[in-house]
Amino acid sequence: MTNYEMIKKFSKENMALTIMCPYEAGLMDSYRCDEKGNGVADGNCRKCILSWLGEDSTYSVGDRVIFLLFHRETIGVITKIIGNNAYIDAGAGELEIPLVDICEIIL
């Protein structure tokens, strides 16, 4: 079993202890754990990440996205989403990419 396969089997609680802040990863617009309203993450990161893991993904079909492929950033368009995978047209045919590998949406 690879480390990736092991991590995919984590419970949400264990995943919340393992992954980085969704805001710092570019997946949210602002810190949610900014309890004092000063733009600083000063709350409970585990609680915030656990909540975020339970939410629907913000990606949708037709989004232009940046993702990592062969250790470089690549741009493509999401053609469909099935489970935790996005199918992306990056110009060389359709690729199956885990949603967690998408870095950001291009507006």
Description:
It is built from 3 helices and 5 strands; from the N terminus they run αααβββββ. The protein folds into 2 domains: 3-53, no CATH class; 64-106. It is of the alpha+beta class and 107 residues long. Strands 4-3-2-1-5 form a 5-stranded antiparallel beta sheet, with no helix packed on it. Helices cover 21% and strands 30% of the residues. The longest helix has 9 residues, at 45-53. Strand 2 and strand 3 form a beta hairpin.
Structure characteristics:
107 residues, alpha+beta, 3 helices
Q: What gap, in angstroms, lies between the N and C termini?
A: 37 Å
Query: What is the domain total for the residues?
Result: 2
Shape category: globular
The stretches of 5 or more residues where confidence is low (pLDDT under 50) are none
Helix content bin:
10-25%
Overall pLDDT confidence: 77
Short description:
The protein is of the alpha+beta class and 107 residues long.
Note the topology:
Elements: H1 3-8, H2 12-18, H3 45-53, E1 64-69, E2 72-82, E3 85-89, E4 94-98, E5 102-106
Antiparallel strand pairs: 1-2, 1-5, 2-3, 3-4
Helix pairs in contact: 2-3
